[in-house]
Batch of 2 targets.
Target 1
Amino acid sequence: MVKTMVVLFGVLLTCYLGYRIYGYLKVGKDLESKIAKGAVVLDVRTAGEFSSGHIAGSINISLGTIRDRYIELDREKTYITTCSHGLRSGKVEKILRELGFKHVYNGGAWVDLEKIVKQQKDNR
């Protein structure tokens, strides 16, 4: 019985990890396409975090100020949110969608997104 449970757990874990990896790769390809089409990278970290390193050409509006500063953004443009790990960028994605932005996507950690942006620039 214990052996069966261990095997079942292993199968479920393998399926779950495969699903997560596939999702990550798919999101990366989707972001590549959006960046190639001119999406704006919106860095939602604090100004201090942003000044310590960021994606060239990105704009900085922190999670703490997004509800006041969203009016600076064009609702017709495509935005990819990013932060240090992907949590704040996910929150800002949700906030902007609630405020009527239709083309906003969570890009996760800025260091990972930066690799995609640099790859797109190298391909041009």
Note: The longest helix spans residues 2-36.
Target 2
Amino acid sequence: MQDELGSISSFCYEHFPGGSPMIYTDELLDGFERPSLYFPLPSGTDAPDTLDSYLITYTLRIKVFHDTLPDAQNCAESIAQSIRSQRYMIPLKTSNGDKVGEYMRIRKADVRAGEMESATLILTWDTRYRYLREQYEKMGRLILNEGVKA
């Protein structure tokens, strides 16, 4: 999940209109800079997916801060539109910022008006994880002597 969060924050930073916003991941204190993006931890709900995997649907509520409410909403909508125009695909990156060559698909990108010159960009995506399977020693040979007709 950390690679996904880093990739999302990098995408939002690169597509922020009109400059480079400050990025916050810890709790916001008074006097934070504007324009800025605040990335809290996403919430997740799980469900079975296939015989070999389960699914977690993550929802991330990114706070977009600017000088005025319309500016914040415009910035959030611009980022959401960048996601939509790229087929809801965000390139995955390593912790160093290098592209891995894989993508994550955003399922939903919504913008909501906030309070105090802020807007909320709500992103939803699914991540699949494989079940842990116990390792067993494979059977070498099976010999049946009874109940078999020749």
Note: Residues 2-130 form a domain with the Alpha-Beta Plaits fold (CATH 3.30.70).
